[in-house]
Amino acid sequence: MVTARLIAANLQDKGGLQMSDVQSTATTNPQPSRLRDALRKARIEAADRTGVVVELRDAEVARLEIMNEALDPLFAQVPEKVDLFDRGVSQGETPRLWIDVVAHILMGRAKRIYRFVQDTSFGRLVLAESHDVPVIVDAVTDYVARRMIEREHAMVATPIVEPPVVEEAPKRRGGLGMFVLGFVLGAAALFGLALFLSLRNL
Questions:
Q1: Per-domain residue ranges for the chain?
Q2: Residue partners of 47: CB distance under 8 A and separation at least 6
Q3: CA 151, CA 74: separation in Å to the nearest integer?
Q4: Quick check: 105 and 116 in contact, CB under 8 A?
Q5: What angle (nearest 5°) sits at the alpha carbon of residue 77, between those of residues 75 and 79?
Q6: pLDDT at 178
Q7: Lesser CB count within 10 Å: N end or C end of the chain?
Q8: Block means of pLDDT (10 residues each) for the chain, length 202 residues?
Q9: Dihedral in degrees, nearest 10, Cα atoms 45, 51, 55, 58
């Protein structure tokens, strides 16, 4: 408002527009968009001109960066203590947007289709595929939710079931002594029987 008044004052001094004209001009001319939105638009336009202005790989990286920015609100809600995810764009031979160590987004063969995949022990699993950013964002949101639930289940302490206590039968004490005593008594009985028979024969 102060700027409009200063401009109006300068214009009045110079015999230019009136105050009402300046206010209407300021109202009809909106402020330029933020730099981030402008960069986003420029990346999309550059990606659409693949093979004309930018190289194919650069277009893939640009589209993955657009997807990465679209995922910012989602990962802003993930608690800091959850260390499951390590998001970032790798610019190797095949550019990828990593979500964690096993899931990432890459461009399909059409180079304008996002493909969200997960590497498993049975091979690569395609979780979602679309040229629409919101569709992939929804798929990543579902994936992040499942991973967080798996983490919660893994952190729950499973109660340890102790094996039932089996009471052992009391051990018989003096087993060897009883055997020796029985042997001695048996031998004495035999000796006595033999002595009795010999005396009887006399």
A1: 56-155
A2: 54, 59, 62, 63, 66, 112
A3: 18
A4: yes
A5: 95
A6: 77
A7: C
A8: 41 43 44 68 68 67 91 92 90 91 90 91 93 95 94 74 65 66 78 71 64
A9: 30
